[in-house]
């Protein structure tokens, strides 16, 4: 394996990781901003108010995006396995 192939594998792994985690992170960020806005308006500073809605939103997002995430990671793994003979040379 050449250094360029190792760099390409690392870039692909980081790209797929960011791609798969992005929807959950965006959902958590949007819900967090909405809750912070709600807390600022109502002056309610309850710690559980920030965590429970984020957890529920991310769980719903995972239910919604899980098939897409599974397809992406399966395609990446299949591509990686098919490239093994080229990487060994």
What do you see in this structure?
The protein has 89 residues and is mostly helical. The mean pLDDT is 92. The chain is built from three helices and no strands. The protein has helices at 3-42, 48-82, 84-88. 90% of the residues lie in helices and 0% in strands.
Described by strand count, sense and barrel closure, the largest sheet is:
none
Strand segment tally: 0
Give the count of structural domains: 1
What is the terminal-to-terminal distance?
A: 7 Å
Helix-strand category: mainly alpha
Helical coverage, percent range:
over 70%
Shape verdict: elongated
Keyword list:
mainly alpha, 3 helices, 90% helix, elongated
Secondary structure blueprint with pairings:
Elements: H1 3-42, H2 48-82, H3 84-88
Brief sketch in words of this structure:
90% of the residues lie in helices and 0% in strands. It is mainly α.
